[in-house]
Amino acid sequence: MKKYVVVGVGGRSRMFLDALLERFVDSSKLAAICDKNQGRIELVIKEYASKCPGLVGYSDEQFDKMLKEHNPDTVIVCTKDSEHDNYICRSLEAGCDVITEKPMTTDEVKCQRIVDTAKKTGKNVRVTFNYRYAPSRTQIKDLLMSGVIGKVLSIDFQWCLDTNHGTDYFRRWHRNKVNSGGLMVHKATHHFDLVNWWLSSTPSTVFAEGDRVFYNSRQAKCYGLEEHAERCHNCQVSDKCNFYLDMSAHESIKNLYLDCEEYDGYLRDKCVFSDEIDIEDTMNVIVRYKSGTILSYSLNAFTSWEGYRVVFNGTKGRLEQECHESSYINSGGKVEGAFEAEGSTIKVYPHFKTPYEVEMWTGEGSHGGGDVIMLKEIFDNQQDDKYLRAADYVQGAYSILVGIAANKSMATGKKIRVDDIVSGLSEPKFPAMPDGTESIEYVKDATRSCGGVLMEANIPLKIDAPE
Ligand SMILES: NC(=O)c1ccc[n+]([C@@H]2O[C@H](COP(=O)([O-])OP(=O)(O)OC[C@H]3O[C@@H](n4cnc5c(N)ncnc54)[C@H](O)[C@@H]3O)[C@@H](O)[C@H]2O)c1
Predict the structure, then answer these.
(1) How do residues 270-321 score in pLDDT, each as one tens digit?
(2) Rounded to the nearest whole angstrom, what is the distance from the C-alpha of residue 79 to the centroid of ligand 1?
(3) Structure pTM?
(4) Which of 79, 184, 335 to mutate to test the pocket of ligand 1 (most atoms within 8 A of CB)?
(5) pLDDT at 231 over 70
(6) Tell me, what CATH number does 189's domain have?
(7) Residue 448's pLDDT is what?
(8) Are residues 28 and 45 in the same domain?
(9) pLDDT bucket at 462, cuts 50 / 70 / 90
(10) Whose CA is nearest to atom 30 of ligand 1?
(11) Nearest CA among 182, 222, 188 for reference residue 299
């Protein structure tokens, strides 16, 4: 039986609390919780009273006291991003393992501190990259490992956050880089981690351009919203604003944030057109990998649909995935990031052969079904994963380092070398991939040798979903 404590009991912590107090009660015990906001501590104690009678809450200032009194095996870190390093390092120094939410941290100084502390203490840091576990994204890894398109030489990756989910980052603490590192770190950590893991490689150089082109006063003026207030609550132009969030209309948002404002003054519904925002809403990044692969990535946070397109060009062909996701806002009560079958496809275009569509692996629940599979691996301590999806601090670092380097590139106009900003990182343990030296059989097909092939037919290639 492993003993856990959780620090940061906002929206995301619920996934871990439910896992500890429902699905994995036989192997896990929740000993205590900690948060800066006393209201959210009391809310958790009340909501989980029947499943965890006598649960004790500690303030942020009592964190070390909590560790001393409960001596947990593992600390689960779910605070806002810029506080992760503080709790990760203190937990490691106290002899605990850590499970941290993404992004591992927000800048290179904090990242270096985590790397050094993890190496010094020898304790484990696990970064919960749930996106890897969504079956349809694991399937991409499976297809790339199978060698179906050979070695990946280049990638085009576009991520779209829509005017519901994407907008929500501009209301909350995420809207300032000091809290989140901007979307290049906070959000794109998922995407850069996917690319690192899909390729089984690490980034070498990064160049980026970005700006805040939509969530600004010019756009507010176009909508006739110049008279907007500091926040949505009691805003005089809310009746003509498509971005209006009525916190009292969502029970969990009301309980977690509106009713807890008196404790720390945090407002979850700040105006998305405010001049206080300093994160970008459109970003373009070029990354060169140590494998030689070149990634072209874009992130836009004001699109009309939610999801992504990713294309891999390999020595033997091309693999394309398009995924449409359900639109949501964090803690809004809907399943977060569920895949929509409509518009979601995987296609393989082998060189000189007939292209085909692959039936997509599916999963249940939030983040494309990734959360449920990842939790089972963590709390049942499963260790026989051929995709090596469990990420440690090294992999946590390499994903944020792309975003941190992108922030530096946007600020300086220069190309940034990742190894220049954090030192002491080993190469991660990734599955072996095709290396481009495999021999390729000659296919005699004059029509396909000339290019310009159309999809002739869908040939389903059924592969069973992993456990
Ligand atoms: N993997 C995913 O898909 C996913 C999804 C959502 C959120 N997250 C991550 O989870 C973390 C929490 O996000 P959230 O949506 O729950 O945010 P949230 O604002 O709902 O909760 C953050 C909590 O941290 C607390 N906190 C802030 N500063 C603190 C401090 N110094 N000491 C102690 N507590 C402090 C706040 O009071 C709040 O209760 C973030 O790092 C976020 O990136 C991950």
Answers:
(1) 999 999 999 999 999 999 999 999 999 999 999 999 999 999 999 999 999 9
(2) 4
(3) 0.95
(4) 79
(5) yes
(6) 3.30.360.10
(7) 57
(8) yes
(9) very low
(10) 36
(11) 188
AA identity, residue 335? V
Same domain, 32 and 116: yes
Mean pLDDT of 390-401: 98
Per DSSP, the three-state class of 264 is helix
Among 169-178, 334-343, 412-421, 458-467, the minimum mean pLDDT is found in 458-467
Number of domains in the chain: 3
408 lines ligand 1 (CB under 6 A): no
Q: Distance between CA 22 and CA 60 in Å, rounded?
A: 26
Q: Indicate the Cα dihedral angle 428, 430, 436, 438, nearest 10°.
A: 140
Using a 6 Å cutoff on CB, does residue 10 contact ligand 1? yes
Confirm whether 440 is domain-assigned: no
> Which range marks the domain in which residue 306 is found?
131-214+277-367+395-417
Give the CATH number for residue 89: 3.40.50.720
Q: CB of 190 within 8 A of CB of 150?
A: no
> 200 lies in a domain?
yes
Residue owning the nearest CA to atom 26 of ligand 1? 79
- Asked if the structure places residue 454 within a domain, the reply is no
Residue 328 and residue 184 share a domain:
yes
Is the CB–ligand 1 distance for residue 268 below 6 Å?
no
Residue-wise pLDDT for 71-95, tens only, equals 999 999 999 999 999 999 999 999 9
Whether the pLDDT of residue 20 is over 60: the answer is yes
- β pairing state of 339-350 and 356-358: antiparallel
Question: Quick one: 170 and 72 in the same domain?
Answer: no
Cis omega (within 30 of 0) for bond into 431: no
Residue 162 domain flag = yes
